[in-house]
Amino acid sequence: MTVPGKTSAESAPARKLRVVMAQLDFLVGDIPGNTELIIQASREAHEQHQADLVVFPELCLTGYPPEDLLLRPSLDLRVEEALQRLKQAELVPAIVIGTPLRADGLLYNTAVVIEGGHTRGVYFKRCPPNYQVFDEKRYFAEGRDSLVVDIKGVPVGITVCEDLWKDGPLEDAAGAGAQLILNLNASPYDIDKQARRKALLQRKASENRVSIVYVNLVGGQDELVFDGGSMVYDHAGTLAVEIPQFTDGLFPVDFLCEHHCQPVSAPLPEEPSLETNVYNALVTGVRDYVNKNGFKSVVLGLSGGIDSAVTLAVAVDALGKERVRAVMMPFRYTSSASLEDAEAQASALEVHYDVFSIEPMYDSFMATLAQPFEGTKPDTTEENLQARLRGVLLMALSNKFGSMVLTTGNKSEMAVGYSTLYGDMAGGFDVLKDVPKTLVFRLARYRNTLSPVIPERVITRPPSAELAPDQKDEDNLPGYDILDQILHLYVERDYSAEAIVAEGFERADVERVTRLVDINEYKRRQAPIGVRITERGFGKDRRYPITNGWKIGH
Predict the structure, then answer these.
(1) Is 55 helix (H, G, I), strand (E, B) or coil?
(2) How far is CA 443 from each of CA 185, 345, 430, rounded to the nearest angstrom?
(3) Is 125 a catalytic residue?
(4) Mind telling me which HAMAP family this protein's record contains (predicted)?
(5) Which domains does the chain possess?
(6) Is 181 helix (H, G, I), strand (E, B) or coil?
């Protein structure tokens, strides 16, 4: 008998549901390996956590983003083989995985629910994103339907990543009776991303009176870094569980489901500082790029300056000191301070350290060029030659020993072209490519709070490329505190030069900086990739034509 004023669901006894969030690192394209990782994680979730349900990230079967691997003719066969393997694995808990799946001739970004060796439900992502680093509409059709599936007596709605950011998908699932929403994500890190996620989850949970399990990918994939940060919000919009960012593992949460699905709260991690998060993102990006691509080790030029100092620290923290080689390549303009500081840092981090002077090679090149250069004055040609000789040395070491070259240019330099093609830009991965110079200084300070490995003088003395006598970066650029603000507005916010001037910056500085940004697109197109940590990095985020007639600064 139904009690007047109550539905049969409200009259039923409370149901318990244990959900395990699988915040894991998957390798793009390795469908067999990713399938085995899902199986092993599901078994571990059962044996160690007695899971009823294990939730994996978006497109975990292929890794994210698979890009044009999705266009390969063999994709459908490989996915079908993987799904059959998962069904035959005799997994005890129900699992929800992300995979590409074709239906009626169209490819969808899909969440599949598997339980007891059978497919319990299939959900097609309804809102494939097509902005910033995302171009899912190149590959995926839009789903139209909701999915609510019964798991241990609990009505569970499924959504995928961007579905949560648009109105409709979650609301429809809640309207169809879902008490608990699972949201599978491959959401890349940027500096403010976790705060934006939390504000969204709080609003969506409280407005729809449903609890939300947000499961995110962790790890590095080319320039993208996924920070995890998986969370659970209850139906009142209260954060009940949060997994530390940049940590992989299986994380259980219990729900008591009666009128609502109420998660059992857990102590929340301490809010990390911006420097902590950025540094962890850099370490994750370097570690996964080097390891997933099979490099034995890395080598970098250690100049005694702050960029190479931070890059070296990140490399050691990512890979271990045994896999990192630092090379000082002095010239006549290299100061004694640079020599001393580079040696001190290499010693503090206990890495393999070499000193190779480029003076003899420079003299040989200049002797060869004496005839064509006769009657000309020294200019940036001679400065660039120094950088290119250093690049040749590093690439030779890379070839001989199988080490990948890490370059050390920061975002401020990449923006204005303060770098040398085939010189300091020569290498496989630029650790600081999306890190403004002012933030580089902050990261150096932060790293020294963990252990003092960067000499204080490296942080405090004026930055210099040391390619000419008494050279300073700010001889040719505005101070970095001004430069980085202008670049933020122009590169990341798309302000015009006039709009930046209206913000209070000197017109001469603005016009010079915006011009440098525009004319150096050709350099950036030839630069190595690097970790993305802002909302708009150079590369996937910002795609400008090299050849164009757009008026500079507009």
Answers:
(1) strand
(2) 28, 15, 16
(3) yes
(4) NadE_glutamine_dep
(5) 11-243+250-259 (3.60.110.10), 276-472 (3.40.50.620)
(6) strand
Can you say which residues are annotated as belonging to the binding site for ATP? 301-308, 408
Q: How far apart are the first and last CA of the chain?
A: 71
Which 3 state secondary structure label does DSSP give 353?
strand
Binding site residue list for deamido-NAD(+): 384, 413, 523
Identify whether the C-beta of residue 411 lies closer than 8 Å to the C-beta of residue 443: no
For 342, other C-beta atoms within 10 Å of its C-beta total 28
For the whole model, what pTM was predicted? 0.93
Strands 211-216 and 180-185, sheet pairing = parallel
Crossing angle of helices 359-368/380-401, nearest 10°?
A: 120
Q: Is 166 noted as a catalytic residue in this protein? A: no
Q: Are 156 and 148 in contact (CB under 8 A)?
A: yes
Q: Print pLDDT tens along the chain (554 aa).
A: 333 343 444 445 678 999 999 999 999 999 999 999 999 999 999 999 999 999 999 999 999 999 999 999 999 999 999 999 999 999 999 999 999 999 999 999 999 999 999 999 999 999 999 988 899 999 999 999 999 999 999 999 999 999 999 999 999 999 999 999 999 999 999 999 999 999 999 999 999 999 999 999 999 999 999 999 999 999 999 999 999 999 999 999 999 998 889 999 999 999 999 999 999 999 999 999 999 999 999 999 999 999 999 999 999 999 999 999 999 999 998 899 999 999 999 999 999 999 999 999 999 999 999 999 999 999 999 999 999 999 999 999 999 999 999 999 999 999 999 999 999 999 999 999 999 999 999 999 999 999 999 999 999 988 776 666 666 666 678 899 999 999 999 999 999 999 999 999 999 999 999 999 999 999 999 999 999 999 899 988 888 888 888 887 77
φ/ψ (deg, to 5) at 400: -70, -35
Residues at the binding site for L-glutamine are: 131, 187, 193
- Count other C-beta atoms under 10 Å from residue 485's C-beta: 19
Tokens of 250: 């299986």
> DSSP letter at 112?
E
127, 161, 257, 261: which one is catalytic?
Answer: 161
Q: Which one of the listed residues 60, 115, 125, 433 is annotated catalytic?
A: 125
Q: Is 75 in contact with 98 (CB distance < 8 Å)? A: no
Question: What is the DSSP annotation of 475-496?
Answer: GTS--HHHHHHHHIIIIIS---
